[in-house]
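User: I'm writing a tutorial on reading structure tokens. Could you give me a worked example: one chain, its sequence, then its tokens, then a sentence or two explaining what the tokens reveal?
Assistant: Sure. Here is the example chain.
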Amino acid sequence: MLSHSLQYVVFVIGVFALYWAVHRYYWPRMLVLLGASLLVYASFLQVSLPELAGGLPVGVLAVKLLPLLIFLAGVTVDHLLVKGMGRTDQPGVRKLLVVVSVVSNLGLLAGFKYLELLRKTAVSLLGPWGVEVRTEPFHLLLPVGLAFFVFQSISYTVDVYRGKASPEHSFVEHLLYMLLFPRVLSGPIVRASELMAHFREVPTLSSDDGNKALFRVAVGLVKKLVIADVLGSGIVDPVFSSPHAYSSAECAVAAVAYTLELYYDFSGYSDIAIGVATLFGFKFPENFARPYLAKNLFEFWNRWHMSLSSWLRDYLYIPLGGNRRSKARVCFNLMMVMVLGGLWHGADWRFAVWGAVHGVALCAVRCWWWFKGKEQEPGPVRVAFGMLATFTLVVLTRVVFRAPDMAHASEFYARMMQGIPGLANVGPLVWSVLAIAVAAHAVPMKVYDVAALAFLKLPAPARAVVLVLLGLGIKQLSTMETRPYVYLQF
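And here are its predicted structure tokens:
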């Protein structure tokens, strides 16, 4: 049940009505949210209601339900570990419990997401030397959203260990923290201290907050269905599938278009998640802050997928030593964070390459600041150069991110470098959407605030008409077939 589908909209309306009918009572509202979250997660499992009712052998049904069973087992283990930390003051025992949590979560992620990559790598490296390595794939079923679940789970147990989160939450609250349906598959990654403490508060929703939430959802739908999907189907998919059939200029346009598609796809998802969460009385953290206007690569990562970037900073970079060690160690820390952050996106060495390139670039920027000193207020020329250089690096590395493998990425780069002119395959609709995408990203945030305020001031019937017209317009402009979120694959 994708959050940009009509089915999801109807689902949210139904859950919204039921939730606010019982919102004054703790257990009813918790069970409504938990039931809705389980239904959303179950909609991505390869099993139907008739099969659950006994239409499949127990063994086959267990395999189909494996992702959900793994998730529930992981939450149960972490909940017991958190309760253990809450019942002891002994530093050694608390440290052991948090280590068990981190190792078990990372072991789960490594086993299901990276074991096949390690097998293929071992075959490639050891096979030529006559070392016998398993040649058959493991055929492991990757639980949907596992990477986000693992990071949220680690953040909770580590925050309890650090004293930044309370261990005094019920299993239902722990489970709902992990599964809350507005962001169950692709984030934002919400810290326990930002969410779990509000479960026991009676939720409130003002008229202004509700209308702002609807406006936010509408903006997210436009980003996803009008901008991201049109760019994806109109130029990105065909060019990346057969770069040799297009000119160098068209490949360059496709690379820029994919960079914009990825942003509008994921930030659109985040807008919908934040808006829907607001409708239920929760506040999710912002996930994007116009990242392509960043003046350097550090600023870009402070603006892009901010919940992931802050997670990597707080739970990996700082524990490694952060900026507190020698210059060489700082560069090592940056490289480790970016390579591991790259691999987090997928079990393929090209993601490690992508992360390593960003790591080298971040180290280069850091070394330049050490050598020349960081300007507090650079002039307009330096600002423009920094923005252009940062955006160019992001676009070029996105090719590795989008290509199915390094061979295709190399082919794409080679085609771009041939200097073949011509833009005959870039149609008027793609040009129009590209222009809209650039303008929408560049305008000050005040424009969105003014638009939201204008929407709030409309009479209720007028707001309804606007939303209906928006829906009809999206239906006409978007592709006929609903495209899944790009970030679901990560």
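What the tokens reveal: The chain has two domains: 6-202, 208-295+378-477. The chain has a mean pLDDT of 87.
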